[in-house]
Fold Mediator of RNA polymerase II transcription subunit 27.
Amino acid sequence: MADVINVSVNLEAFSQAISAIQALRSSVSRVFDCLKDGMRNKETLEGREKAFIAHFRNNLHSVNRDLKELERLSNLVGKPSENHPLHNSGLLSLDPVQDKTPLYSQLLQAYKWSNKLQYHAGLASGLLNQQSLKRSANQMGVSAKRRPKAQPTTLVLPPQYIDDVISCIDRMFPEMSIHLSRPNGTSAMLLVTLGKVLKVIVIMRSLFIDRTIVKGYNENVYTEDGKLDIWSKSNYQVFQKVTDHATTALLHYQLPQMPDVVVRSFMTWLRSYIKLFQARCQRCGKFLQDGLPPTWRDFRTLEAFHDTCRQ
């Protein structure tokens, strides 16, 4: 096998070198033991010093002798040939350069970012739960004793329960009609008609509102095949503004433990647009500013403001 690997090593000298290493370690240990014991077993100080020096000198000579023997044997051992096969270890030189493919550093950075995101999400959830009583419109008029019990936070709710919630909201506001449909399975889509002012397409996931699109009352909200058009924007700037404000309202009304309250609060806020073209701005007192009526509605007081006056 030595011929196959082509290793020119003197095994006899190698075995002797191992024994020489052990002898060297023993002699070095005796030197430190001598230093540790110090001057002992002599009556006079002079006798103790002479005995200590003689013992210490003998130990140093032993270390020197063993070290020379080890050096002699190391020259007899030889060294392996440089052209013997490396097998799989030869592939180590093919590893990519860390500067060109920093995979480890990227994974470490992603792990730290994920931990920070989870930490801040927990803090945000705690703050939102503390402010839960302030995140509904003030016109709901539901007392704490009559408030319904918290619903499960799961996204999968029975369709019948969702239908009952939407039907109850539809009866709450006579000037608002809500048509519910499920063209793509269990997910509900609402077409909300607010008087003769506007129409709103509400896309929902279970009882959670995903997004909304606001269009004028006379605008077409259906595609050519008769389905609700959930992609096209309104042709009027005023309803595009209201769409942006509705998206902001969805981010404001967040209460995962009670999704039905979120839907009612959003519909209450949306109902305040019944006088979109009749309400004055509560700050500047004007009906129009830059050709637009006050399109912003305060989330708590539902007062009308121009987009530039609400700050």
In short: Confidence is low (pLDDT under 50) at residues 1-7, 138-142. The first helix runs from residue 2 to 5.
